[in-house]
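Q: Can someone sanity-check these two? First one:
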Amino acid sequence: MSTRAHPLWRPSSGCGPDCLPRPGQSPAVPVSRQVGRAVALLGLLGLGIGLVVVLPVLPSRERQAATRGWARATARACGVRLDVRGRLPRRRALLAANHVSWWDILAVLAAAPARLVAKQEVGRWPLVGLLARAVGTIFVDRARPRELPGVVHRVTAALRAGRSVAVFPEGTTWCGGRDDCRPRPGFRPAMFQAAIDAGAPVVPLRIAYRCGATGTPTTAPAFVGDETLWRSVRRVLAARDLRVTVEIGAPLHPGRAADRRALARVAESAVHLVPSVAAAPSPDRAASGPGPLSRRPRPAEPPGPELSLAA
């Protein structure tokens, strides 16, 4: 039997070369600085090899601190400034983020060290693949959709064990700019079943890239179409005042009988459709709006609005 994935299992975006900045369109640093950043990046990747050996034997808290420190140092080496807005729950959660670039992985690790769910190809990337395996990445073979239930089971087990897991439910990258480029059919619901089964909250993460001098959105870090990883890395190393913002949304708390498709739609709305995922609607508006959404306080979590999703 063929293992080719059904088209619905292989999401696609409307992005192409036109979504990327043309040469000379974005402000760039001098070539000498680009070379310096490349050397620093290679040094951090070399350090990552050392982490591959050390991380598995470290206690959980130290492992997270080492991963976060490495990711933030790598950002500085590339000349990228990181801005994290909002706070994560103090306990395990399924982190659901939009997907623009390979850089999203570093952004998530720098903001909220967690186990990642990534396509199997990432595990074969030079050096990065080794580090991905060291932090416990759960790989998905998108050419074998029959293996998906097993992946969901592994995510559920990680959540039940108290680990946070980060997923990119769009299933593919896009430029993060034009709405017509957004991947279809939207957030895939499979991984949200893991949060329901484990009784874990879902935390929406919005990742955005901007030019620091003007604050305007940029597609320079995007990794779309048929371009190579190296070309995307070169654009990041050349970018001037590139900033990445990781905006942490209000947690969604699915009930035991919650529907994963409804949960996926709510999480997608929190990431894409709300002006700021950190600013949630008032209790009255939440109670009267569409869908089975309601508010309930959770004193054990950091203060802030939270959404509860029932079946």
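And here is the second, same format, sequence then tokens:
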Amino acid sequence: MNLSEISDVVEKRKDQYLEQLFTLLRQKSISAQNIGIRDCAELLKSMMEDIGINTRLMETDGHPVVYGEVIKDPDAFTLLIYGHYDVQPPDPLDEWLSPPFEPAIRDGRIFCRGAGDNKGQLMAQVLAIKTYLDTCGELPINIKMVFEGEEESASVNLASFVEKNKELLKADLVYTSDGPMHDSGAPYVLLGVRGMLYVELTAKGADWENHSGNKGNIVPNPAWNLIDLLRTMRDENGRVLIEGFYDDIRKPTEKEKEIIKELPFDREQVAEKIGYKQLDMNGEEYYHKLTMEPTFNIAGFTSGYGGEGTKTIIPSQATIKMDMRLVVDQDPYDIYKKFCAHVEKYAPDIEVKHLGDMKPSRTPADQEVVDVVTGAVSESFNQETILQPSLGGSLPDYVWTKILDLPSVVVPYANFDEANHSPNENIGVNNFFNGIKCTCNVIHKLGKYSTQC
């Protein structure tokens, strides 16, 4: 196999491959609302079987996993490919330029819910298997595929699924294509993700809203109670004051420090793309904060009246939603206990509710198989690959690195401005086809690598 052969096959099948992707995109699969999920799983299973992938639906306590495999030799190198077939709700509908579940091509991009996250990237992986098999006759390694239907709902049943199926999921490397490429347009190889803890704080005052004049200084304002609590949690420099919050953070290795120093960074370009022109930091600081430091974020603050004009009331309740992105080796459950202990100490009347969590994950950068994947990706895109220790966001990568004890890499195929989770989600047409070619080349290079081990 060589890339020119693969490129020729993909070029001849462009219309066919686009229609297969469009078929999957048209099928709704909104996990949070349980809309179309099983129909989508059945459709994906059928598409994989048509390619020659031995596929089955495997039940969980929630939505089913679509599991597929092509086994060359039980003793051969095994690549486990992960993705998800569920999508976010399309709201707000009036901001879409075309119907959210009817794929449309404009300006070289495919617009549809799930185009980038994750059906476009998932189908690039599936169609890579078809392309490789049709070009070469057989795969050089074993392939296993796990496509879940709950990633957009925090992958609540993936860990238990992996625990129950350790023997089935035995592999040598996990490969995920999700998220956007680097803002420069260069290909990425990401070696981990930050974890997350999501909590809700609720403060209550009187049983109902009161007149802010007639009852001012008499009835307490729960919004101020929350603000006073927040002041005890974080200092003026942004450092979290919760006891033990930073205790278990793994320090970056020298190799990881070197990688961070070498990452490309254009301050003005990044500032423009994130809509914050006041951004004032260098590349090393930017990437260290993005990959090696936890966050302590207020995602929403709701209390009282926020409509047009004025309404002079003392609210009866105030609510804050917070998310904390955690880094290796912080444990969400441990951080939650410490968070609750802090609230109990400073504001015991405030209610804390756990809304979700995900563990952080990181694969060491000095593994030889990381170099193999990085080289294959660079060759596929004919461009130097950016190697980054961690994604700033969260994926359920820990199920592979912690439960299966496997190295895991994330190689995004979608464009940086894919607008995933937003109206007018998209993936570049070329990004989709390049993803097929890249997956083929990664499989090929891993085959060559495995024969040398």
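A (reply): Looked at the second one. The chain has two domains: 3-193+361-452, 195-245+294-358. Residues 3-193+361-452 form a domain with the Aminopeptidase fold (CATH 3.40.630.10).
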